[in-house]
Amino acid sequence: MPKADNTPSSVEGYTFPDYGSIFSNYRTGSQNLLGSQDRQVGDYLSGYAGAIKRQESVPAMYARIGTELGLPNLMRNANQINETLAAIPETYGAATRGFDVNANQLARIIGAKTAALEPAARRATNAAQTASGQVAQLMGLTQQQQQKELLPYEYERDFLRDRIARETSLFTTANEQELRALDQKVSLGVQLTEAEKQRKQQLEMQRNDYENSRSLAEQKFGFEQKLQDPLGLFS
Predict the structure, then answer these.
(1) CA 189/CA 87 separation, integer angstroms
(2) How many CB atoms lie within 10 A of CB 66?
(3) Which of 22, 45, 129, 176 is deepest in the core (most CB within 10 A)?
(4) Tell me, what DSSP letter sits at residue 145?
C-alpha cells in the first residue's frame, strides 16, 4: 500500500505550487506536440509519395516518347536492312553454288549488291539514331520538369524540419537574430555586460538544443520514409 504524501501544501503562509498538475500538464503538452509533429511528417511523406507515384515512370516515358517519334519501327527497319546487308555474301554464295560462277564473278556480284544496299542501310541507321537521340533529349526534359514539380515538397521538408526543431527547442528566429547580434558585438571587440553574457550563454544552449532537434527531425523524416518506401523509390 503506497505511503500517503505528507508533504505540506504550505509553509508559513506560502502555498506550494501543485507540482503534480504541473508535471502532468507538461507531459500531456509534450505528448500532444510529438503527436502533432508525427502527423505533420506522416502527411508530408504521404503527399510526397503520392506525387511521385502519379508521375510517369522511366520505362513508360521511354515507350511513350519512342512511339510518338516512331523509334520502334525505325530501329526494326534499320536492323532488318543491316542484317540483309551483312548476309549478302552468304546469300549470294549459296545462290550461285552449282552454277558456273567463279570466285571473281561472285566477288563482283557481292560488291554490286552491297553497294546498292549500303545507302539505304546508312539512311535507316541514321534515322534510328536520330530518333533515339531525340527520345533521350525529350526524356531528359521531361524528367527535369518532374523534378521541378517535386520542388515544393523539398521546400516543405526543410520548412517542417526547421519548424519541428524550433517547436522542440523553443529557439525562435528572433532568438537566433539576438544571438547573432551578440556574437557580432563580441567579434567587434565590444565588452558584453554580465546580463548580456548570461543571455548569450542561454541562447547558445538553446541553439545547441535546436541543432540537436534538427538532427532528430531529419532522422524522423528518414525513418518514416523508409517505412512508407522501403525500396527507396522516391528518395
Answers:
(1) 87
(2) 20
(3) 45
(4) H
State which residues form the domain around 180.
Answer: 39-228
User: For the chain, how big is the Rg over CA atoms in Å?
Assistant: 37
Query: How many structural domains comprise the chain?
Result: 1
Q: Is residue 29 part of a domain?
A: no
- Please provide residue 59's backbone torsions phi and psi, each rounded to the nearest 5 degrees: -60, -40
Q: What is the DSSP letter of 17?
A: P
Per-residue pLDDT of the chain (235 residues; tens, 9 = 90+): 445 455 555 545 555 455 455 445 545 555 665 667 678 777 887 888 888 888 999 999 999 999 999 999 999 999 999 999 999 999 988 988 888 888 899 899 999 999 999 999 999 999 999 999 999 999 999 999 998 998 888 888 888 888 888 888 888 889 999 999 999 999 999 899 999 999 999 999 999 999 998 888 777 776 555 544 544 544 4
- Residue 85 corresponds to which amino acid? L
**Would you state the cell numbers that stand for residue 41, as one nine-digit string?**
511528417
Beta bridge partners of 11: 14
